[in-house]
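Question thread 4412

I'm putting together a teaching handout and wanted feedback from people who do this every day. The idea is simple: show students a protein as raw sequence, then show them the structure tokens that encode its fold, then repeat with a second protein so they can compare. Below is the first pair exactly as I plan to print it.
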Amino acid sequence: MRSRRLWLSLAWLTLGGGLTITAGPMPLEADSTPPPPPDEPDLVPQLATQAEVSPPPPRDEEIPPDKAALPVPTQLRLLSATQESVRLAWQFTWPGGGSSEPNEASRVLAHDDRANHYFLIIYVHGDDEKFHRVQRDQRECELTGLKTHSLYEIRVKALVGGRSTPPSPPINVSTDVGQPGQPVITNVSCYDTGALSLEWERPSDFDKSVDYYRVFYRPTDQAVFEHVTVPSGTKETSMRYHLRPLVGRKHYVIKICAATRSIYNPNRTWLGEASKEVRVYLPESQCLGPEHGQAGELSIGMVLGAVGALVLLALACVCYVIWKRHLKSAYYEIDDLPRVVVPMGEPQWENEPGLEGAKPGSILVENLEEHVALLHADSDFGFTKEYEEIQTFSAQETQACHLQCSHPDNKCKNRYLNIVAYDHSRVVLSQASGQRKTSDYINANYIDGYRKYNAYIGTQGPLEDTCEAFWRMVWEQNVFVIVMITNLSERGRRKCDMYWPKDDAGCSYGPFEVHLEHEKVMSNYTLRKLKLRHLKLRKKKCASGERDVLQFHYTSWPDHGVPAHPLPVLSFIKKSSESNPPDGGPIIVHCSAGVGRTGTYIAIHALLEQIRDQGQFNAFGFLKHIRKQRNHLVQTEEQYIFIHDAILEALRSGFTEIKSIDITPYIEDIVQNEEMKLQKQLQLITSFEPAEFHCTSAHKSCNVSKNRDSEIVPIESARVVLAPKPGLEGSDYINASWLHGYHRLKEFIITQHPTEDTKHEFWRMLWDHNVQTIVLLSSMEDLTEFPIFWPILDEEFDLETFRVRFIEKATHEGHSTLDFVLSSCQDDYELTVRVILCSGWPHNVKQLTEAFEVLTLVQEWHLEYQNGPMVVLDAMGGTEAATFCALTTLCQQLETEDALDVYQVAKLYHDNRPGVWKSKADILFMYKAMEALIASSHIANPVSSTVNSPAAVAILSPEPVESAPDHDTHHDGEDAIPTNIALGNGDLNGISRHLRSHSDSLANGSVKMTRVGSDSSESSSRRHSLPPVNDVESGLALEACPKPANGIVASLPNDTQHHNHHHHHDNRHRNSSEEDVEDDEDDERNSETAALTASA
């Protein structure tokens, strides 16, 4: 590719292409800018000349290339450089070591003076590579049209008759600095007799530095400026200078230029554009007004008049003070905001020593996996020891005062009596006139981040009476991002009061008004955009009385516990922290008490910043440091362990979300490095290997016969629980697992095809969990192996508390539907259920985009009943069903965020139902399918979400969707495979961000789907992987993973090799809560009844 680019560039040059020549910086206009001082040389603009390149005349005969000797360029060097050009020189040697042409070469070149013999200069800046041709008799050249203060890598090579020498060793050359921008004059005023006080700001645009300023001044009655030179400090952004001596009683015109010295010639200075001119009047004496005459004798009338004027002035002052106090009680001055004095320098905690006898300071990233494994050893003994040391340190060393927190007026403002706000680090609110001194209190503290003081504010969940104080803190601290890590109620206890409005009507909190503009509900967190207005604000200059605030509300983080898996948390931390603008204030982080989950979030984010900057990690030192600022941060040992596991997961996988434009180069990268990257992804995805205690219910003797495949069974934390029958062991068990979707943690139930003995449990599951949509992917050809599990025609299933009755069947192109009604035996409640038969999906699709047609029709039905989960079943409850759920989730993520995260979805699905992914082909199929969807322009509505909203919008406006804070078991442990993946840019996503356009696209239209039967000799316990998708044109299924053909149809490997999973140590459980569901009315349908199948 690179050689092709080179020859294309040479052909362009040969056909007459030229270089763009630009002039150097223009000096100031002669009529407004004086000449430079005599002790400095003139500012000389650098002018470039056009390089004349003419195409060679046509040749009469070909000269064999092997007869032409090639000169070898050497000793490439820089002669001079300006802002936009560099002059180079070089030497060359001929074969044999001479500097002159050998006889044979002279004869060949003399034989044909039209031989293509010249030197080619190659200069590269970043990703921009350019070429310049020089005739054979030249030993110098000038490159023009370059960027100012930019580094170029330059090489030279010789070309003779289509042959070229290797390039010379490269040299790095930098162009000279450019002109600085305009300073901004902020104040010009009279300072003293014959002196003006000038203040200005440094230009925002400059190279390297601003070395000095020139202040130009002239009276308005003169045409020529005079000037003085004012030196500038390297770090000074604001300048002040007293201009003297001047003549009084004159108007002056002032303007200022910034200057930067050349990096090649200290005597050459580049003077920037002058600031806007400012006019000012200078009095004659001591900046007074008009001259006063001499005082004469004072009459009695004059004395009385003066006394009366003083009395009136005093009364006016008293009235003004009273009015001002009243005004302050009713309005809020921007200039009166409490200013936080941030300490100078940076917080130092990175080298805080560890435990006695342990290595002091931070842990290198390359040693982190081994370090965490040692801490996990012996039932987490290392973590226990470290956390106890932190607890002891907090109790003994932290002697912080908290008098304001304990004040009788403030005790009612604390949610918990033992969670205090230290006085030295607490957030102090502004005090309105007439209020008590204690009105400045809120239970909140500043917390340091990585090399940044007061990066966060840790606070409790607001109480009903402290919502106004909370929003006052948001306003005064210039907060743009709020991170909420609690639900309003947990386990029947109030954890936080609702401090934002439920709808766009808005709520008032004292002088503040808050409106809910948008809300987006996702499976793990909810994103809200709030409009904050100050109703009693006295605006000054360009200050605004309103502000947009983003609230990131994590809904699946249990109290005193940890999330199910670090991956969603890492994604949540990245997106929330990156939403804070550069000029924004601290990020407010709160849970219920503002210490446990709050401290965990802060620790993970700060330690990730340390790793990115230093390649080191010191959780022990950081936690000791921030506990001096707020008590009990990281409240449990389990949270302390989770911090380490989350950091380790970030190092292993990196940030795995892929933008839609990057999907094709990403797939090409993992396919070309299949064994290294795709195989490593599969190993990381399937690293959790469940222990015996993870599957206790599935392995009970009373339940073993209910499992079709003993290797695909539900783990305890994710299994679907049935309502137990009294006295009947195992009556609460069915081989089914919960899987998360894009909007809910319990959006899907994945299960096996019911057997004759478990079909009643299947219908009980639908009844218990209010299921109204079933997707059937298993084959219906072998009714002995996969029997019909529903009632036929007039048949009914009587299941004690409810009955199942068949309603109708409908046949469509590519699928069929069966409708049933589940009726209660105790009351008139009924539940409508539809079974969508898509047997053979996705094996029977001819093109990858056809796989999404099934997803579309399923969602069109299911979205009419949003209160219940969707059941997806295949033969074993394995790969096909998991792929269906994963693609549905990824489509919704793509539609909302214009990005997708295949790795995260696949890993979380494996952790909930181990065994669903068998080979690399299963993972690659999802990548290829999503690539085909993007390329075929079907993104407009592939899978409709709850609201039609444009893609790539950070905050959307959907209809609210109720999402219960469901919990899953957390699996954290060790990965025996060292991955060496760099943080956020590792093997999983370390590819060039380059979009390659697709030349073909799939045509829209319905495709008839054909059922694929199973081989009758196939064992029921056989584990299926997704087969290769055959190329439609070639009809060949390749064994290796090729690059995608036009990014649409790809041949996937049929790799059914089993991979050993790595041990995933986890002794922690959490209860699986059931989602609340609501009743829906029945749909009115035609009652046409038909036979299901001839075999049935």
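The second pair follows. I'd like the answer to focus on this one:
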Amino acid sequence: MDPSRDNKSIEEPESEIIADVPDIPLSDLVEKMVYDALVWSSLDGLVDAWQWWGLGMMDKTSLGSLEGDGEGLRCEGGYICRKAPAGSPSPAAHTPAIAEFSALHRFSLSLHTCLRRLRFSFSAPSRALSRTPPHHPIPLPPSPSCPLRVVEMDSMDFKVGELLKEVQLHDSEIETLDQAVSAVIDAINSVPEQLVSADAASKFIADLGVPTEKVGFTFKRPEFIQVGGSYSIKSVARPDINVDLLVRMPKECFHEKDYLNHRYHAKRLLYLRVIEKSLKSCPAIRKISWSSFQNEARKPVLVVSPVLKIAELPDLFIRIIPTAISLFSISKLSFSRNNVRACTQATPKYNCSILEDMFLEENSEFVKKSFCEWKSLKEALVSLKVWARNRCSMYAHDCLNGYLLSIILSYLTTESGGNLIKKSMNVMQIFRVTLKFIATSNVMDKGFTLQPRGQYNIAEDMNQILQSFDVVFLDASCCFNLSFRVTKMAFAELQDEASWTLSCIDKCSGGGFEEIFMTKVDFAAKFDSCLRINLKGNPKICSSDFCMDDECWRKCEKDVHSLLQRGLSDRAKLVRVLWRSTPSDWKVENGFSYFGNEPMLVGILVSSQEKCFRVVDIGPSPENKEEAMKFRKFWGEKSELRRFKDGTIAESTVWECETWERHLIIKRICEYLISKHLLLTKEDVAHTVDQLDFCLQLGGKDPVSFSGALLGAFELLSKRLRLLEEIPLKVSSVQPLDSAFRHTSVFPPQPHPLAYEKGLEKKPPKSATTCIQSLDVMIQLEGSGNWPLDPVAIQKTKSAFLLKIGESLQEHWGMLCIATEDEVNVLMSGYSFCLRIMHDRGLNMLRNQGGNDKIRSQLSIDKELFFRSQHSSMINGLHGRYPTYGPVVRLAKRWVSAHLFSSFLAEEAIELIVAYLFLKPFPFHAPCSRITGFLRFLRLLSYYNWTYSPLIIDINEDFTPKDEKEINDYFISCRKSNEENAQSIDSAMFLAAPYDKASEAWTKFSPNRTVLKRIASYARSSADLLSNLILQGADGPYTWECLLRTPLNNYDAVAVLHHNKLSNPHHLLFPAEVNCGKHIICGKASKDFHPYMSLRGRVQSLDDAKNKLMVNFDPTLCFLADLKREFPNTFSVWYDYLGGDVIGFTWEKKDSRKRGRNEEEEHSMEPTDALKKVGEVGKGLVKSVYLLKVPKL
């Protein structure tokens, strides 16, 4: 706040100000001061909170009658105030105080964060949201001793109320907009009478198939012009602000048989062409363009942009939509009639296209009457629009739009709708009732009508109408189907989203406000599998008859849906073909040639992993000849007659593949069906499934295929350990700790030819890797009271046990064992296992141990083993529930490593973050494909509010509300401590798991705020690129590989390593390319190490080869350890632990704290000298070092 600011310059509300915050909006105070959203009604708590923040002294007596009286408090213009008594003067000076308006857990912080995010969609953020939020967490005040609610307010209702303030138009904007609309209406009414011919739109009329001599008429001014749509009922929602003008065309412009063969549509366009020509000279209009009504190409509309600009609404436009009341006989347009003579069947959609214009004004009046003087109903419509727009594929012209939403709400207020919506309901109650109606309605089976109950007078049988349309929702006349464009697949998606949203409200914290209203459910992130089908030039599209009953491209979309839905059967929960929109640059002069040329997008939502990965589809029995014939005709050469184990003989299709390739089955089914039935080649179909598999494979094969051998080797080891008799205490438990055992290792180890027991050696290949990865295994011994009490003695005892275990394994089974003080490495069955012992007494002693660092270091080994064992058990169980979890984690780890974040983000932390996506997927379903899961991982990294929120991963639903409160309380105390201690090195990422509520295991010290900000920035960029690749494909330089190429120019310096000196050079994705910067040194490769050894001629001397085998050796890690010792505080080191050949350096900024002598010398070293020393430290491994930019120290 600016203390010099004159309080008189602020407009004061007409009430007594209890809390005067002249320069800081309430929402900013909420973000800074409130975590649990407690309302301070205790005067002691109020004063303490204010003074705790250092905002000055407060005289408690000045608050007088505030205590115990909360009814008069309210929020007005950013102030907390109480209505002043009648006749009382406005105070000259105001006493500062703090108040808040909800008590639900953390609602205020999440609200402010959400509204800040939503702000970027709006052109005019409110004063309360226009300030830049603080870039660092603010310490939060302690709860007062006696917190009471001053105002009772439901959290969800409050948030929605604030959201509505942001998305609805302000009175001043409405006034300006009304002026623009009036100017356009005046311009239309001034259009003179004139003759119109087909020449005004010859290409369009020709594509409709209408003879030019049938469309001439005399233009007459509209009979009536009125505002329709959401603007007429004050339910417009940002950012899509438009006004619909319903222009009634005179009957004199038409003949009685113009309903036939698209003559009406041709004249409708020509009527608009005359208006367009006149409006071009109107000074009130800045721009005129064309679009289509509800994406129907044969019904264009004029889009007018007024000259009168509204700063907050830069994209405002006015649509001119023709209407035609009572133009034709209703009986001539019944659903069973054929009015396009080129068709051989009824044309219900064509007929509805004309009926829509005839009943548009009448249905708009019905909506207006329903919404009149009903504020909560209008606000519910706005909230439903926000909800629907966030679900991009659902808010489409074949599914849901604002007009249909208003019709549904109006219907639910009537007797025919069961009066489900009542005047007494608030916004969220109406919201829930509407979603429940959508989710549970059987409109596809029975249909609905707006006609009051008991007055049904449907001219045609409802069953017959249901055969003409996927969804039937008749208006009050029962002659027009309001939902004639809604497709079966779109309505299925709508019902699924409505049902899932209701679950979200019940299951998510805070009523799921952020998940429902703030999170974008876009096409790329929603569907498990996405296809792009290029139909340009296909005979199904390039037809001479663009429009029959429906546009030809709409029929093609429907055919593709039917084809894939039938082929995928129960594998797919939902197959969604997205309606292609009117091209943005379309003009009526172009006719229909532009339509249908864009690739068709298809989304597939998988029903379950089990069904998705099924290899065999069983069809009908050959005894059912008719069905068997249909099956063989549909599947063609893929169909075969098979006998199954139970003796059943049936037609079937088999999709043979290896286990690790089963995620490709859906892709192969789709490609086969499209090729067979649509005559398209594989090049015409891009199916997003396996585009990132290249980064997980070695030699064209996924190493996860060796997991079976690995698990078998572990089971054998476990059995042998339990059989040992020579050790004083028997082995009671053997648990694998390495990520390879829980299916989350990027590169699970393959059997090594030199890691077998004596006598069991395999025939050696020509060569083998010199290094072998060791897999950690934890051992627990049976209980005994004879363990020593001294921590050092405990560690020595463990070492003795490990030595004896190694000797016994070597003696009994011929295993090669390598023992150290803390572990023993055992080579057997092609693998290396690193055995460690955990003892419970070490854990208990660690909790009570003082400051002896050496002892604590020894005891912390037990704690680390405990964390790892608990983590492994939980993650292994999670992978059992979600088979896609493992591949998603592997992609996430590959991305983290490829961008050199390995030293900052532990792999266990990555596993927990991905686990959260499966356990708390709202507003999505849990991902069933690796690319979809990977995209959501990137978005979670980039958008999660790490500063103010812990990420709670409740894998087995173990957490109670009390546990979550403890986690949040501890999180707050940590953040407060960080702010108070400027030298704190605590992590900026807080991951709470059942075994680690305090986030000590994996993110206690890393990543810090700077690193996390960098990670989030990279994740955001990668997520945007991935979304574009899914929806549009690789374009120019932006390919799938770009997701894993890190920009080296973001580092101060880089060191490039010799590729042939890495421990696993075959893991390298892309060789480093440095094309800028200053070349500091160039180093030669060492001759002492090579990643591969030749086994030729060693068949008789495998023991000699085994002696050269290096267990757990990685030259890069050794180099990094040396750098850490040599430069502990000079720069941060960034590397790829999976086998990258480049290391990045960013210099640490100097601070003012006191340093030791060695530290001063280190910081005083010039960057060039430091980099030369880096080359010396990495001699033999470092190929070259570059200084890319001089660091700012």
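Top answer:
Good format. For the second protein you could add a caption like this: Residues 7-153 form one domain. The two ends are 32 Å apart (CA to CA).
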